[in-house]
From TrEMBL:
Record key words, sorted: Chitin-binding, Signal, Virulence
Extent of the signal sequence: 1-25
UniProt-recorded name of the protein: LysM domain-containing protein
Superkingdom assignment: Eukaryota
LysM domain residues: 86-133
Gene3D superfamilies listed in its UniProt record: LysM domain (3.10.350.10)
InterPro entries: LysM, LysM1-like, LysM_dom_sf
Organism: Lactarius akahatsu
Gene Ontology molecular function: chitin binding
């Protein structure tokens, strides 16, 4: 009886650690630092000429769009991206980012930008796992107080 419950307990631990590996931090999200509002009737080719970027670069920066036909007028395209480097990790003790964000003086929006494995509500953290709480540099529109002049 004891042996069976020990085995069951161990398999729960193994399952929990394999789940934890899946959600482990892979680092900050690629951030869009410059955007462009698509005018009426524009195609990826037109925009490529205007923006000085080829079609594959436009698609890489905007994975949701299709370059077949005209682009939806008014769509906001990303035209320049930045891959920040994480400079500090902290260990989660909770499943939300509230505690870590306030401890490290960053907003929830920062926290989500710094960790590409958390959801948009910052509610799927895994206790005991490292999360990025600081990156090198500021970007336009960064809500971090230290980036506001
Ligand atoms: C498209 O632009 C990217 C970024 O400037 C460049 O790395 C790539 O070689 C270009 N591809 C072609 C087919 O010109
Ligand atoms: C933060 O943790 C991630 C995931 O373990 C790791 O890849 C990264 O190198 C760490 N970064 C720093 C600055 O310690
Ligand atoms: C957090 O940021 C605010 C605004 O810049 C600053 O006044 C405050 O001292 C910071 N707190 C900590 C703990 O760093």
């Amino acid at each position: 009886m004891y042996a069976i419950s020990t085995a069951a307990f161990v398999s729960v631990l193994v399952l929990a650690s394999s789940l934890a590996v899946i959600v482990q931090a892979t680092g900050p999200r690629t951030l869009c630092t410059e955007t462009y509002n698509v005018p009426e009737g524009a195609t990826c080719d037109n925009l490529g000429a205007i923006l000085g970027a080829n079609q594959s670069a436009i698609l890489t920066m905007n994975p949701g769009i299709s370059c077949e036909g005209t682009l939806p007028a008014g769509e906001v395209l990303c035209t320049k991206t930045w891959d920040p480097t994480c400079t500090l990790n902290a260990t989660a003790t909770d499943t939300t980012c509230d505690g870590l964000a306030s401890k490290w003086n960053i907003t929830q929006a920062d926290f989500i930008n710094y960790n590409d494995n958390v959801n948009g509500d910052c509610t799927d953290l895994v206790s005991g796992q490292p999360y990025c709480v600081s990156i090198s540099g500021c970007y336009p529109g960064n809500p971090d107080p230290v980036c506001q002049q």
